[in-house]
Amino acid sequence: MTGKKKSHSEVNKYVDFSELDPFVLSQYRNTFELAFPEIILSSEVVKSCWDKVEKYFPHYQRILIGQNSDLIGFINTVPLHWDGLLTDLPSAGWDWLINKGISDYENGLVSNCLGGLQVVVSKNYLGGGYSKKLIAEGKSIQEKSGFKNFIIPIRPTFKSKHPEVRMKDYMHLEKGGNIYDPWIRTHLKSGAQVIKVCSNSMNVKGDLPFWENLVGQKISQSGTYVVEGALNLVDVNVEKNSGEYREENIWIKYS
After folding, report:
1. pLDDT digits (tens, 9 = 90+) for 50-106
2. What are the CB-based long-range contacts (under 8 Å, 24+) for 17-21?
3. Strands 149-154 and 113-121
4. How many domains does the chain have?
5. What is the CATH number of the domain that holds 180?
6. What does the pLDDT read at residue 10?
7. Residue 189's domain spans which residues?
8. Is the pTM of this model over 0.70?
9. What angle do CA 132, 151, 200 make, to 5 degrees?
10. Is 246 helix (H, G, I), strand (E, B) or coil?
11. What is the Cα–Cα distance from 126 to 220, expressed in whole angstroms?
C-alpha cells in the first residue's frame, strides 16, 4: 500500500539557533555571507554584535530546514524594551536595534517588543514564497512572547539599483499600479504598516584605502561614490582621508 505523500509543510521544520547541527550551521554561515554585499559585512556593528545576538537570543533566531537538512532560510530577531512612540524610533535604525537588544539584555531590562534584523532565503529557494513564511514565523515569535509590536528597519531589495534616490521618494515608486520594490510590497501584503524612514540605519566609516577597495578604483577627488550593493551613495573626503556611508532603511511595524 502506497503511503500518503508528505506536503512541504510536513517535511519542512523550524529550529532555534541552539539546535543547529554542524551541517546546517555551515549552511547558515555561508548563506549569511552570500546574502549581503561587502559593505554591510564590513560594518563594525555587525562584526562586534552578531556573536552576541546568537549567544543571548538563540530562541529568537529561527531557521527553516527542508528535506535532507537543506537550509531554506532564516529570520533573525532580538527582543528589546521600548516604551516610546513608534514614530520616535531612532534614525539609527538597524545599528540602534541590535545594540539596544544587546544592551537591554546585559542590563536586565524586561523586553516588551520584538525587533527584526533580517529575513534571508537561500538562493535555491528564492521565489518560493518562503520570505512570507519567515515573516509569519517572526509574527509567531511576537505573539508567543506576548509583545505588542514587531518592528523592523527593512532594507528594500531594489534600492541598490537607485542609490542616488532618497528613500522618502523611492518607497513610494510604483510600477504597473503596484509598489515598485518587492520587499516593501511583500511586507505590506503581509500586514505591515510603514512608520518612517530611518536615515542612518547602517553606518560604515573608513579611510581612503578602505573605500577604494569597495569602490574598485582609485579615489582622487572628494565627492559621492557608488559601492556595489549599497542603498545610498558613499560620501568621501580625500583631504580628511575618510568616507562615510549612511544607509537609509524604512521602519515598519506589525502589531
Report:
1. 999 999 999 999 999 999 999 999 999 999 999 999 999 999 999 999 999 999 999
2. 17/54, 17/58, 17/59, 17/61, 17/63, 18/58, 18/59, 20/63, 21/69
3. parallel
4. 1
5. 3.40.630.30
6. 54
7. 9-202+250-254
8. yes
9. 110
10. strand
11. 40
